[in-house]
Amino acid sequence: MSNNVLNYGWKEGEDPQSCDYLGPAIKVALRKYSGIERVCDLGCGSGQLVGELLIEGYKVAGVELDAEGCRITAERNPAATVYNLGVEDSYLSIVEKEEAKFDAVVSTEVIEHLYSPHLLPQFASGILKPSGVLIITTPYHGFWKNLALSLFNKWDSHHTPLWHGGHVKFWSKATLSLLLEDSGYEVVEFSGVGRVPYLWKSMLLIAKLKKS
Questions:
Q1: What digits encode the pLDDT tens for the residues 27-53?
Q2: pTM, 2 dp
Q3: How far apart are alpha carbons 6 and 140 in whole angstroms?
């Protein structure tokens, strides 16, 4: 029996609040690298970021396990190619259909939902050019934020255990960096996103495939 959540409850016109601060951060991160034209949004949800990246002039593909999320993304963004796949699936159908591999793969607030998170960077490496970048965001966990959650008794609401398809992994900079390093990447940049420093809502890591 699979542990995959096949329906995350995506609805038209209801994008996560995190889009407000993650979208701008992703666009800033992409602009730091010259020659990025083709971008894949891995775990694209309802397609808000796909649309923002299309407006920026990128050629964009979306990958989403939730069939309803795929439908909404495709209807909102007819210029994008959308694949109904999860990271546990083969990426070969994407490689076969696309004219080239991607210059960048972005994945926002996805890896904390995965029972087997190592599959995400592995999937990304299969569709990335050797010179490409992987940009991942996930809720931030560090000493001061964890302390604040404890002092204000917010752990129950933060863990959201009653959220169907909610968070099953809670990452720090160190643990996410280790996952990426073990998956064949070199982390080249870390930044916090949203709220004041060290109480960030999310963190953003940029990684490149290690040269063989």
A1: 999 999 999 999 999 999 999 999 999
A2: 0.91
A3: 25
